[in-house]
Structure formats: structure tokens, C-alpha cells
Amino acid sequence: MSVSPIYNFSAGPAVLPEAVLRTAQQEMLDYNGTGFSVMEMSHRSDMFMGILHHAEQDLRSLLNIPANYQVLFLQGGATTQFNMAAMNLAHGFERADAVVTGNWSRLAYEQMPLLTDARIHLAAHGGEQFDYKDLPPVDNWDIDRNAAFVHFASNETVNGLQYADMPKLSDGMPPLVCDMSSEILSREINISDFGLIYAGAQKNIGPAGVTVVIIREDLLERCPKNIPAVFNYRTHIDKDGMYNTPATYPIYMSGLVFRWLQTQGGVKKIEALNELKAQTLYAAIDGSGGFYRNDIAPHARSKMNVVFQTASADLDKKFIQEAELRGLRLLKGYKSVGGMRASIYNAMPYAGVEALAEFMADFQRRYG
Amino acid sequence: MSVSPIYNFSAGPAVLPEAVLRTAQQEMLDYNGTGFSVMEMSHRSDMFMGILHHAEQDLRSLLNIPANYQVLFLQGGATTQFNMAAMNLAHGFERADAVVTGNWSRLAYEQMPLLTDARIHLAAHGGEQFDYKDLPPVDNWDIDRNAAFVHFASNETVNGLQYADMPKLSDGMPPLVCDMSSEILSREINISDFGLIYAGAQKNIGPAGVTVVIIREDLLERCPKNIPAVFNYRTHIDKDGMYNTPATYPIYMSGLVFRWLQTQGGVKKIEALNELKAQTLYAAIDGSGGFYRNDIAPHARSKMNVVFQTASADLDKKFIQEAELRGLRLLKGYKSVGGMRASIYNAMPYAGVEALAEFMADFQRRYG
């Protein structure tokens, strides 16, 4: 094993705070004197219900979730939410609007029509116009005020795009449905601007296997009775999250991450750190005289997933290989995009970003 | 904390082998010298793909899964499989058959029609005839040979019923689809007798959050193209289980359980132990002169979930409370059934069953 620290830049499942892993390790065979591992607890036991409710309360507190929003910890990932959102919220509507700004929102747009009668209308497209290098401003979205909802992704993990100002619609417009998987808890947001937020845990929340859903209560009236209970938001709300056995251990781990985030000063504090981390990497790219490139419009650059490349695929490969040997791991870009991608979620310490910036300078000295 | 051991009789999430938990504890911050926690590994990394493929191979070896069956580790629990099975396998069929023998197969029967055009036909019912105290013999099932499939649950967790001889259909009959959640890996079975087997992990496999699906390859041709990719078995097969991020840590834990089961001598050996455990508890019930009762037809008694009761709900409550204090935990029966339920899956050691039998005798001496 290397003596120098390892930094994990995976886009997800991603790095977790070391303090969280140490707590999980200590409690593995005996949670809080119960004599049980969390994995062995009946989901309906007081022991586990306590863990679940605590996690929910901490998330509510971190994100300032108003009382008229319900919180669920579901299974199936964000991918399942593409269809659950459409099945539950578009019933009886002629149309729902979808904004396509990269890999994930495109997939949502493609999948959402499959279990709903509503037509999914392409409300804005970052591809044809911008080749996923810029984001269509919310004022340019072509929205029907009678649409069931407007779906978008606030951060595109693959393409490295993020809305710097979180989109907001005026009163009387349809509810915003947002895939926030790769940025939730990374900055302060106003939950009341959304109808539904969903997020796969494996980036900024916890381990893979749990999906956080935050839904405005009045929208639950739309959930049709003739869809399977397991895909119905209202079933899960009515059963206090226990309609079927949830992914108990991933929920427990998410709760530990929420508590860790509180010890870091909460979302406002981590947002400032995330700003600094992103600035450091983009400065390393922009200050390289063109040796490293990031082609995203500056105002649309993601603070979570920093994509960059050198002049050739061969040099990118060498960069990734050498970085691996220095303990800077999983920097390879998504297969359809290529190049490098540094995912710098909440749990990535500033030291990891510094180490990467230093290696970038060193690599350029040797190959530039 | 008590000095005497704690035995966890939860119906699921359930007890895990202590050796498995100790390995997980040791590897929490550094899996196999990688410097990563398993939870932090990209699901597409070689590190995690190795874990996944090893788990699959061990499961194939333990269950003697033939080469023409595919294995998936999905999310959403057995409950999601009710609808996935119907959506994927009943497309273009007029009818699918369902056998209802207790709580879980009844729920499957109720949910399966909701996303398929096929009519779900009640092929046999253990309720009206038997009040879930006996199982309809497979020879009495009313099956249409043109049905898409025949669904049943081999073990009813809530009601404490289990087919002693695993149902098998003759050649030319529809494929059997079996919910095997609460007994998979507890006894030898012939995979070739089934079209599809699914099992939520949280009883005999690992922690909650992963569902094992074993499917005969030729049935994949039925999967329609117009269902969401995330609910399509073929998508997951085509993408080598990586269509979306799977529940990586629960898969890793399941793999550890598979290896543990190999060290115990495999399924044949654990089956003998499971026989002995069940015999011990049923002998304690039957030998109590009526103080404890189990009303299931003897040939249909579950070897995984032993339900029993005393003469009154008050006495049941006292039993459960006193048992808790002796470290015999989570013996309360399912809310709709009442009484007691001792779930004695693979990971329950014989000592736990002995301790329960001794406590039963002691309790009877004091209250009988």
C-alpha cells in the first residue's frame, strides 16, 4: 500500500467522509448497544425506525425542507424516478415538459413517455444549439402552463454542466421536477421552488441503493390508484416509508453523512468550500495556456464534475495512468465524452483538489 | 449489555453470519488493499466488477445454476418483481396464472395486473379453502397451458407455510415464476424447473436493497421494447448488470454470505441443519400438550418461519416481552397474524433455536 493519501475522483459511487466510514466500522456488529448490526434490524423495528426518522429530520434541517414537503428514501436510483415522476404526476395531463442539457436529462426525456399517456414535450435543448457546452436559460424554456411538470437536471454529471443560478418558474407555472443526484446538499437551494426533487444517493448523500425523493404534498393528489403500489409515491408516504423493505443500510449510511455535514457547518459552509475547490481546478485548467481544456461556457461549468482534456486522447490516457500511480484515482471521463473528469463532491477534501492541481502542473512541465 | 448471546429471530432484514459482519468491518475502509471502501467504488470500476462477478459465480455454484440462466442483482425488492415479471413475461399473452397461498403471493396476485394487458387468473387459492393453513397441491392448480407463466411463493414468510416438495410442472406447461425470497439457498432445488426465480436478499442472502433474479435465457425474448429500460430484464442483461448504478454494498455483502455458505459446506449441508432447527422448534410446540399451537398442516409447515401461539394474546405478549429480556429478539408475529414467529434462516445458529426451545419450556413451566 502507498503511504501517500489516495483521492477518489469517481463520479459515483463516490468518496465518503472517512469519519463516516470509521463510525460505520465501529458500529458494524453492535449499533448503539443494541447488539444488532444495522443490517440485521427489522425495518419496522423501533431501532431502525429511529435511524430512518433521524436521517429524515437531519436532511430536513440541512435543506430547510418546509413542512408541506414529504421525504422518501426509495430504491431503484434516479433512473427509476424518470418513470415514477411521469406515472405519478402526469396522469390526466396532455403534456409534460422536459429540458435536455446532457446525458442524464436526455435519458429522462427518452424514458419518461413509456408509462404515461402524456406527451413529453422537448422544452429546451442544450444539444443541437450548444452541443452540451452551454445551458439554455430558464427564460428561453418553451413551457406550457398546462403541462404536468417541467423536468430538468440541475447538474449534468457526465457533461460537466451546472445551472449556476438554480432555475425557478413564476407562480402559475407547472411544478419543477429536478434530478439533483449529483449536486444535492452541495449548495443552498430553495425547496419551495420545486414540486419534486429526486437524487440517487451515491454522489453527495451516501452509498448506492437509496434515492431521496422530496415532494410537495399537494402533488400527491395526482398519484393515480391504478399504478402498482410500489411505484406510487402516495403508497410510500401513507406507509411511512415502510410499504416494502427499504434499503436499510444505505439509509443508515446516508444518515451518518447528514450528521457529518452538520459537523462541517451545514450546507452553507460546504458550499463555500465547494466554490473554492471548483475555482482551484478551473484556474489550473485556464492557467495552463491551453495545455488543458474545458469547453463548457464559463457560467455553466459544474462545481461538482470538472471535465477537462489535453490535446490528444493518448496524452489523456497517460495523464490518467500517471495520476492513478500518484493516488489520484478514477479520473477517466465518461465513455461517451472521453478525457478526464474530476468529481469533487462534498466528501472530497480540499487537499485532494490541491494534489490534483499540483499533479496537473507537474504533468504539463513534463509533457507540455 | 447482556453477557448472554443475543439471537435475532427477525423475519427480515434478518440475522447475518457474525463472520461475515467481521469481514465487512475489517474491510470497511480498505477493501483488499485498494485503499477504497466498497461503498466508494465506481460500479463500473474493475474493483467492483470483480466483486459482482465473484458473487454471481459463487451463487451459480451454490445453486447449480445452468448456463442457460442469467443472474441479476436488481433493486426494489421482491415487490418490484411482481410487476417486472408481469411486464416482461406476459406481453402478448391473454392470461397469466397465479397461486395464492398467503400474504405475499396474494399481494403479487393483486399487483401483477396493473402494468400488463394479460388477465391474471387465480389458479389456486390456499385462503378460502384452507385459510392459509395448508397449501394447494400442484396437481390441483388450474393452469392454462397457454398462460404466460404460473406465479407462486414457495415459502410464505408471514403465514409460515412452505411447499415441502418444490412444485414442478410437466413439459409443455408455462414457465414457473417463483418468489423464493424467504427460502432461497436454504435447500437444494432444481433451477431448471423454473422460468424465473426472484428473491429479496434480506432473509437468506444479505442486507436489504438487492434482489436476486435468475431467469431462463429464452424468456428474455418476451421482454417488450416499449417498457422503461430500468424495468426491462433484457436491458440489465445486455448491460452486464450496469444499466444503472446497482446497490453495490448490499451486493458485496451478499457475496460475503455466499462465501460463508461455501465454508459451511454449501446448500446440502445447510439444508440438513435447517431441517434439524425446524424439527427442534416444531417438537417443542407439538410436545407442549397444547400450550403452544401451530395450526399449519404438518406437511406444509415452513422450515424458515415457525409461527406459534399460546392460548391468549395477553400470554403471547408476555412471552415476547420475557423472551426479549433473555436475548431472544424480534419474535413478534406479523401484525395481521399475531402470535409469535421464529424466523430461522441459514444464519441462525442451532444454539439460537436450542435457546428458544429451552425458554419455551421454561415459560410453560411458569405459566402453563
In short:
By secondary structure, chain A is of the alpha/beta class. Chain A is built from nine helices and 13 strands.
Q: Can you offer a commentary on this structure?
A:
The structure is a homodimer of 368-residue chains. With 368 residues, chain A is an alpha/beta fold. Chain A is built from nine helices and 13 strands. Chain A folds into two domains: 242 residues, Type I PLP-dependent aspartate aminotransferase-like (Major domain) (Aspartate Aminotransferase, domain 2), CATH 3.40.640; 103 residues, Alpha-Beta Complex (Aspartate Aminotransferase, domain 1). In chain A, the strands form four sheets. In chain A, strands 2-10-9-8-5-3-4 form a seven-stranded mixed beta sheet. In chain A, helix 4 links the parallel strand 3 and strand 4. In chain A, helix 2 packs across helix 6 and helix 7 packs parallel to helix 9. The model of chain A has no long low-confidence stretch (mean pLDDT 96). At the A-B interface, helix 1, helix 3 and helix 6 of A face helix 1, helix 3 and helix 6 of B.
